[in-house]
Amino acid sequence: MNWDLIIFYYLAIVMIFSSVFAIFSRHPVYTVLLVLVMIIHQAFLLLTLGAEFLTVVQIIVYAGAILVLFLFVVYLINLRKETKKSMFIRTVSLIGIVFLLLGGLLIKNLLILLSLKPSFKAYLPFTIEEKSNVWWIANYLFKNYLLQFEIIGVVLLVAILGAVFLIRKVKTVEQK
Amino acid sequence: MPTLEYYIILSIILFLIGLFGFLSRRNLIVILISIEIMLNGLIILFAAISYFTKDISGYIIVFFIIAMAAAEAAIGLSLVVLIYKRLRTVYSDEITNFKG
Amino acid sequence: MVEKHFEIITEFNIYVFLIPLLPLLASFITLTFGRRYFRAKAHLLPILALFFSFLLSIKVLVDVINGKIFSFDIYSWMFVYDLKVGLGFLVDPLSAAMMTMVTCVSFLIHIYSVGYMNGDPGYYRFFAYISLFVFFMLMLVLCNNLALLYLGWEGVGLCSYLLIGFWYPKKSASDAGKKAFIVCRFGDFGFALGIFLAFYFLGTVYYHEMFQKLPEISNKYIEVLGYPIHVPFLISFLLFCGAIGKSAQFPLHVWLPDAMEGPTPVSALIHAATMVTAGVFMVCRLHPLFELSDAMLFIVAIIGAFTCFMSATIAPTQFDIKRVIAYSTLSQLGYMFMACGVGAYIAGMFHLLTHAYFKALLFLGAGSIIHLLHHAPDPNDLRIMGGLKKYMPITFWTLLIASLSISGIPGFAGFFSKDEILAQAFFSKYPWGKFIWFVGWIVASMTAFYTFRVIFRAFYGEFKGWEYVHGKPHESPRVMTIPLIFLAIGSIFAGWIGIPEILGGKNHIEKFLEPVLGPPRTIHHIPHSTEYLLMLLSIAAGLFGIFLAWLVYIKKPSLETFFSKNFRPIYTFLFRKWYFDELYLYTIVRPTLWVSRKIICGISDNTIIEGIVNGSARLVNITGTGLRILHTGIINHYSTFILIGVLVYLLVYLYLK
Fold first, then answer.
1. C228: helix, strand or coil
2. Per the confidence metrics, is the pTM higher than 0.80?
3. Which of B8, C107, C352, C455 has the most CB atoms around its CB within 10 Å?
4. What is the chain A residue with the closest CA to B72?
5. To the nearest whole angstrom, how far is the Cα of B82 from the nearest Cα of chain A?
6. Averaged pLDDT score across all residues of chain A
7. Are A99 and C643 inside 8 Å of each other by CB?
8. How many CB pairs below 8 Å do chains A and B form together?
9. With an 8 Å Cβ cutoff, is A102 touching chain C?
10. What's the pLDDT score for residue B97?
11. Alpha helices in C460-609, H assignment, sequence order
12. CATH of B4-95, one of 3.40.630.30, 3.20.20.140, 1.10.287.3510, 1.10.3210.10
């Protein structure tokens, strides 16, 4: 039992539990805050995978932007605790069966897939050549994946426009 | 040292938790958050595979996934707000205009 | 005769192109915007278009007289393997003469309609249809191939249908429209087959190419049910079927009298002057084909003669003024076919041209009376007319001119053309010419009789329609009488272009049309004395008919009922139009209806087709009701279905690969 494993177990358990509680929480604000906890832990998990740039991005974008947006919307539409009835929809048993089937299938097959190949030893490949992770990602992003990068930019732009378009003030909506 | 299997199992568990929330919750905002949890599971999978195969592409994909998640959250949340404005509810079983 | 030299122009000529185009544009614009924007001014655009068409056609006619022939394609309409059909025009003397007549008469009738249709709710519709008709008629006349001829042929049929049923809320009008359309369909079926066959044997639908290739098939026979049949005979017979339908010859003549349900200008334009003569025009246009088969010409002549005689016997018994004129149209069309059947194409075309003027005039004059009596339950009824001479002087005099013209009184247009037909029939090189002459001669006196019966009944004696007229009967408005006057001028002078040489004339029309239609097919030596004798005979026949009508309807009115009382069966037979309507009712309409109702509708439609249709609808309904359960409207369920789909795919992919 070395420190790597202990850290991994700590991060994994916190992530799993926080996301489970997030799903089962009756109050949307708690859900968002628990997911925030999960995301920060995941950022550290990415750090153990040698991706310090992604850690930063994860914290800035996910925790700083997306979840704040969620929180903002939750406050905006003033959601209360779900007390009316069950917080799950009525046919949850059917969904549960399907979900378990798919989950079992996924885990079984991925494990079979992994057992066919040897495990890799963990090491940090990119620091060996004395280049940082940021350097590598930038190098690949602006050389090999430039087109995809541009497309993502356009997608983000369209998303911004779409969001603005969708919630603009329309008279007919107001009258209804 | 945690091997690749550890990471993969963690990502699958996260993915399934998100999937369950996505399928079963009534609240549209929680449904969207569930999608984020599923995406986080995928992020771990790609980052781990990238790390263990010494291939930078996985990290790039993670980068893209985060960008996509931002776009998706923006559109999804504006739709939720729109639905709330029109129907005064965000509970999926009360929005049954498509009922056949 | 010196062979006239023609200059054939194959380039695009904007004037020729504009002649049919203008009425088409006017029709489209009027039909699209008429209801909302033009309303009572809907006549302006079509009349203007027609006026320019008329001027242009005169210009083109002058060009043709000066020795030009226009023949050009402007657009490739169909181009499939061997079949090449272009949108093309051919303006030679034949089509130029016809075109000028069509634009002139329709221009006058357009103006007349302004008065006649005044205040009708479908005013704009009327003018749009009638302009469209002029377009199709001009296409029919000016086209240079059979396929385009067919387009015009069907187009005028369509317009005829639309205009006969113009007052469609009236059941008899819509029925008459349907009758005209369906009866013509029998003929047009043959016409289409004729075109196919012509293309099959000649490999082209263009006139000039067809005529060049005619010698190839002149001695060809094909086997039909084991009998060898002469190919030119078969083609021309099928084409003639179309002519029978369109020109209302026996046995498809039944639609024309019923077509009088339409507005009177329509009867004048479509069912007297232009459309019904399309059959004659077609036979003249394709005369090289028809001439290859003597049997075909014999059939043309006999059908013409029979129709001519039959309708002349029916006409005196009818009391509907328009029907009387309609039967006289049938009769005159019979004359034209008789002329074609004895090879006197020029005389036939000549009669066609003069007939257009005096027949349009007869109809419009009758329309003038009908316009006066339009409050009567049946304004067409001759029995409520009478004594109108002093109230409607212009109508009376113009109608009198038309009647004298159709009766063949010397000096009027009808005399020259009818005499030309009779003379050329008598001297025809075909053996049936004498018989045709005899029929024509008899019918000439009958024509005079029933035409003057209309004049005497309508304009002499006492007026009997007081209760339908406010105040005194009055002359029609000027917009109607002026076209009457112009047509009356045409009815006199149109014949003067063809004064025969024995009367000191030049016979311009014969010289004009001869390059296309060839010299008359007569025996070589024609004694002048016989010609004079024939002329005197036909004048005598006309005068005898007029005298008889005067005797019966003016001098001794008691004679009027003499025939109908003493020869009851014959009278009834004639009055019921030889029982043709009844014959068709029992032999064609009823069996068709029976087969349709009992067999096609009862067994096939109700049981099999409806079974399949309703069954499939029920299947969809059951499936839908079942699947409806799945459509809860809740997105979680939908995403679950997507998940199930993924699951199934994964299972199949992983385990059944």
1. strand
2. no
3. C352
4. A159
5. 6
6. 80
7. yes
8. 221
9. yes
10. 78
11. 478-493, 508-517, 528-550, 560-566, 568-575, 580-584, 590-594
12. 1.10.287.3510
Check pLDDT > 70 for residue C2.
no
Residue B7 to chain C, least CA–CA distance (Å): 23
- ipTM value: 0.90
- What is chain C's mean pLDDT, rounded? 85
Long-range contacts of C154-158 (CB under 8 A, 24+ apart): C154/C188, C156/C246, C156/C270, C156/C274, C156/C275, C156/C278, C157/C181, C157/C184, C157/C188, C157/C246, C157/C275
Confidence of residue C411 (pLDDT cuts 50, 70, 90): confident
CA angle C295–C299–C301, rounded 5-degree value: 115
Nearest CA in chain B to C644: B23
**Of C176, C261, C251, nearest to C579 (Cα)?**
C251
Q: B16-42: per-residue pLDDT in tens?
A: 899 888 888 888 899 999 999 999 999
Percent of chain C at pLDDT > 70 equals: 99
Task: State how far the Cα of A79 lies from the Cα of C597, in Å rounded to an integer.
Answer: 69
Please report the pLDDT score of residue C477 as a whole number. 84
Distance separating alpha carbons of residues B36 and C397, to the nearest angstrom: 99
Q: What is the pLDDT of residue C640?
A: 84
C647 close contact with A: CB closer than 8 A: yes
Query: In which residue are the tokens 């002499």 written?
Result: C460
Q: Which of chain B's residues have a Cβ under 8 Å away from the Cβ of C631?
A: 98-100
Instruction: Write the pLDDT tens digit of every residue in C313-346.
Output: 888 888 888 888 888 888 899 989 999 888 888 8
Instruction: Indicate the pLDDT class of residue C497, thresholds 50, 70 and 90.
Output: confident
Whether C646 shows a pLDDT value over 70: the answer reads: yes
Chains in contact with B, counting 3 or more C-beta pairs less than 8 Å apart as contact = A, C
CB contact under 8 A, B6 and A23: no
Angle at C139 between CA C488 and CA C56, to 5 degrees: 55
Is A64's pLDDT higher than 50?
Answer: yes
In chain C, which residues have their Cβ closer than 8 Å to the Cβ of B93? 634, 636
pLDDT score recorded for residue A166: 85
DSSP state of C247: T
Rounded alpha-carbon distances, angstroms, from residue C148 to A48, C45, C206, C271? 84, 26, 9, 21
Q: What pLDDT, on a 0 to 100 scale, did the predictor assign at position A176?
A: 43
Q: What are the residue boundaries of the structural domains of chain B, listed by start?
A: 4-95
By the 8 A CB rule, do C444 and C545 touch? yes
Per-residue confidence band for A121, with pLDDT thresholds at 50, 70 and 90: very low
**Strand spans (E) along C210-335:** 221-224, 227-230
Question: Chain B contacts of A136, Cβ < 8 Å?
Answer: 56, 59
Indicate the residue of A95, A105, A109 with minimum beta-carbon distance to C640: A95
CA distances in angstroms from A90 to B94, C105, C175, listed in the order given: 12, 83, 66
C-chain CB neighbours of A102 within 8 Å are 643, 646-647, 650
Please write the tens of the pLDDT for every residue from C586-606.
Answer: 888 888 888 888 887 778 777
- Report residue C631's pLDDT band, with 50, 70 and 90 as the boundaries: confident
Residues 42-61 of B with CB under 8 A from A: 43-44, 47-48, 50-54, 56-57, 59-60
Q: How many residues does chain A have?
A: 176
Closest to C109 measured CA to CA, from C477, C394, C400, C361? C361
The verdict on a CB contact (< 8 Å) between A95 and C646 is: no
Relative to beta strand C221-224, strand C83-91 is: unpaired
Please tell me what DSSP assigns to residue B27: B
Nearest Cα residue in chain A from C634: A89
